[in-house]
Amino acid sequence: MEHLQQVPFSQVDITGGFWRQKQTLNRDVTIFAVRDRFEDTGRFRAFKFDWTPDSDIPKPHFFWDSDIAKWMESAAYILAKTPDAALQQTVEQVIDDIEAHQDESGYFNIYHTVAEPENRFRIRDHHELYCLGHLIEAAVAYFEATGHDRLIRILDRYIDLVIRVFTVEHSAGFTTPGHEEIELALFKLYRLRRDKKYLDLAMFFLNERGQTDEYLTGWGNARYAQSHLPVRQQLTAEGHCVRACYLYCAMADAAKETNDPALFAACRSLFDDITQKKMYVTGGIGSSHHGEAFTIPYDLPNDTAYNETCASIALSMFADRMKEIDPQSKYADTVERELYNGALAGLSLDGKAFFYENPLEINLSDRHRHTSVNDSDRLPITQRLEVFGCSCCPPNVTRYLATVGGSIYSVTDDALYVHQFMENTASVDGMTVRMQTRYPQDGKVRLTIDGAKGKTVFVRIPGWCSDYTCSLPCRMQNGYAAFSADEDAFVLDVDFAMQPSFVAAHPAVRADAGKAALLYGPVVYCMEGVDNGENLFDLVIEPHGGAEVRFDETYGANVITLPAQRIEAADETALYAPCGAEKATPAKATFIPYYAYANRGESDMTVWFRCL
Amino acid sequence: MEHLQQVPFSQVDITGGFWRQKQTLNRDVTIFAVRDRFEDTGRFRAFKFDWTPDSDIPKPHFFWDSDIAKWMESAAYILAKTPDAALQQTVEQVIDDIEAHQDESGYFNIYHTVAEPENRFRIRDHHELYCLGHLIEAAVAYFEATGHDRLIRILDRYIDLVIRVFTVEHSAGFTTPGHEEIELALFKLYRLRRDKKYLDLAMFFLNERGQTDEYLTGWGNARYAQSHLPVRQQLTAEGHCVRACYLYCAMADAAKETNDPALFAACRSLFDDITQKKMYVTGGIGSSHHGEAFTIPYDLPNDTAYNETCASIALSMFADRMKEIDPQSKYADTVERELYNGALAGLSLDGKAFFYENPLEINLSDRHRHTSVNDSDRLPITQRLEVFGCSCCPPNVTRYLATVGGSIYSVTDDALYVHQFMENTASVDGMTVRMQTRYPQDGKVRLTIDGAKGKTVFVRIPGWCSDYTCSLPCRMQNGYAAFSADEDAFVLDVDFAMQPSFVAAHPAVRADAGKAALLYGPVVYCMEGVDNGENLFDLVIEPHGGAEVRFDETYGANVITLPAQRIEAADETALYAPCGAEKATPAKATFIPYYAYANRGESDMTVWFRCL
């Protein structure tokens, strides 16, 4: 079938509402907060290449290049919408440094120049190609924002070196990168420049992966880095989540560029495996910190959930690509799940602090269980931090927020697809589109479209929505309501009925057995101890009681209060008592959006709760 | 108040039923199985003191003396009922070895003679006094079984050394033992010999404990070894569970011997803290493997429950002592809870294999969660083993089983107390008592008592029982039904109504929120995957449906079948679906006694289940 073409964020202006608030925060606060912490920690300084074993500056890590690259990419996206000379100057300064320190061969990597030059391209897990990938993404973004192609030209020399070393000389210590990223970046560059060498290199890395028994040097097995099978035979999501989803993005890119049915089939299978068996209701993926990895189907413990923010972003990226080659609503549903939940939870409400891990349950007392030994269980942190030792997530969040407008629309020759609902205006393939909505506060969406006559407008009916109205006649196709545009200019009102809705997990998800989660539209909710008292599991929610839904400016979304029963022991001294002896007293349970948890100090929290 | 005097197991013959079967298995199988494994592993051989760094025999561990001592104690208890020349010869051989290798000073410890003599009494956590304690218990048991006091005489010299080193010269590297045990052993010896030096040494160790900041050498803090406070100020159970409960036993012994109200108050507080806040429904204690320790109130996770078998036995020992100084039924209730659950689960049905840890939930799939890294979560083993590196539990189980008859009766000058219900005949303080019962198959108990005229017979009404009949008039006192014996010979029938009963945990026990456990009389039940399919949490039990109760010879108890609903996804591909969309199909759930789990191969298992 005909593939869809994404309408890039640059053609879409988020003009108000929920995402305008987030993008303003990102532009005014987050991009600078990340910059400041990266300056504090020596990441910018590292580009001066002046670390020596005797120096008193921090030793660069082999992935620091990528941290700054992602920050530059974010800055470029922000610059594309809002010129800022100082911000641009910071980017230019980094490019100056890169240019100044690029090796004669074209090679560029801080760590493997100042600290371990003898191991260039020797250690599969040392992220050199991952760093190059992020630099390529930054270069493409910066060119598209400013028209300046200096970084592309610098990296082009590096890419030529990589082509020679990996595909001609085969002189590297490994065949494919330990951490995928360069593949999807090469597709971006290929789409910009249409130079087939980029496509060929991307396809080389894809096609070689899993052909040999290429293990990592460390403790992960081949599955950890998706090297256990040739990519077209990878039908289940395995290993390190971020690596996996970056690979799957590239596989989707390749499927689209090359019309490869085996790749496309693998992508569909991988997507279904993740979203039908390995994804938290928040969109979080990677249920274990061991390997930051996918585990087995339905293994979704809540308090130890790893759910790296980058993994949510990566799944969103994969889903966003899938919708272009297979316009079924489940893909954009997953993007939406990440937008309002898994990915967004990574950022504090003040825009300055981040979670790397995103559990669905916090029980503070568990952190102090061990009173007699200097030992503890490993659990996620409970408050966001401004920077991490491995600080991949913060710049990923800012580039993600800057480009959410790119997830809204796609086009084909004769159709306009509307995937997401954000207040915006867009210039799309000869059409102008205006979308007015308070989504996710409520589900009313007005589309004012000009220039679509003869085309079909497809509007996604969200997976969470079972009840909606459309102001024009429509037919359903793959989860989209299809409207034939008979007039050149028309207005389409769609109203997705939003109300507190209770979901259960598949019965095989042991961690959620007998529990429910609350959604309101696309937003997953949670209870926090700060609102609901010390023990969130002595509250039993009454789903059919009267809910109070109140918009809260702090969250940019609704706070929901539900009637509940608080279970109390009939006899405080009885550790075990006959069922039914307990007292149930009427109570109120307050739910806030999951993405907003942990913004009011340390607190218990749960997404899954007991329900009558 | 007047203290009760235990009627020792030697005066009680278990003549049939559940415990006769267990004792026969213990006598015919378990004692020899433990002996054989201790021979295989070099524990008996170690008493030859011929290990050297160059030898090819296993290096003794510093607690091996105690393993054999507990085995000898068990053998003595068995010999007390059933003479067995070969068994006795094995004990005598060990005593020969001990005599041959006792140091001139009186000191005896294998490890600290052959491997690390320079550290005698230097390292608090090296269990020398713990080993001596177990040897003392063995010596007392063997003397009481056979009249042979040779081991007592040997150890008396060692005890004199300990008295001199610890209480006169203060020349040891520590003041009180890192692992308690010698204290309660000294009380046993004191009661046998009435030599005040034993009492004084026991009281010295009790009174010195927690007076100084005496840490262990390792990773535990003072609380780990109950050294955080003077014993009379220890009001909550802390640290390593077995150490703790052995200490509490000695505190109860001391309270009884010295009529010390502060010690008694501490014991009562410790007992309540354990049984009201830190004990699993099975009687298991010590919810974490970190330190094999008590954690915080209501922290009772099921799948990671450590629940060392020795800790259950130790709590039973503590409770058994408490009932003598405070005859409230809650103490014998706890003994009963251990008898039929926590302690008994440590032994396989064939009598040959043991659990060290006793979780309340097994999910086999959790053991294979990590598919891409060579890492895993720590979880208890799922099948009993015949011996462990640290094999304290097996000989503890066999000594415990051999002496269960000692938990049935106590006397005062004018009363007979009946605490436990086992088919037996006893000769008690001028009375003869015959108890006929099929307990725990049903709750009918017939007592035929001769010689009790003028006394009061107190029969415990079990805490699990809310419905019972007595054939004679009675009054209730502290959980015991009190009968005045007007005749010299009489028959008393008590019938404790047994039926499947469902209990809930205190609402603060997060792990059990919304779940129920099944009891039948004193027996806690569990579901196993082998009976009920792969996912025990997609079964929702109907408590008010018709239960089928069927006696099963294999278990010596009932198997219970309950109606249930099996929850199935309406759409297998939907990881999350609206509450209520799931299908519920009628099913049967089969429950077996918890103590009998893991006897039919590896299987999922749960004590706590979903319930309508």
Task: Please give a structural write-up.
Two copies of one chain form a homodimer. Helices cover about 35% and strands about 20% of the residues of chain A. Chain A is an alpha+beta fold and about 600 residues long. The first copy, chain A, has a six-stranded mixed β-sheet with strand order 1-4-5-9-12-11. Chain A has a six-stranded antiparallel β-sheet with strand order 2-6-7-8-13-10. The first copy, chain A, has a six-stranded mixed beta barrel with strand order 15-16-21-19-17-23. In chain A, helix 2 (about 65-80) packs parallel to helix 5. The longest helix of chain A is centred in the N-terminal third of the chain and has 24 residues, at about 15-40. Chain A is globular. The two termini of chain A are about 45 Å apart. The interface between A and B is large, with 73 and 73 residues.
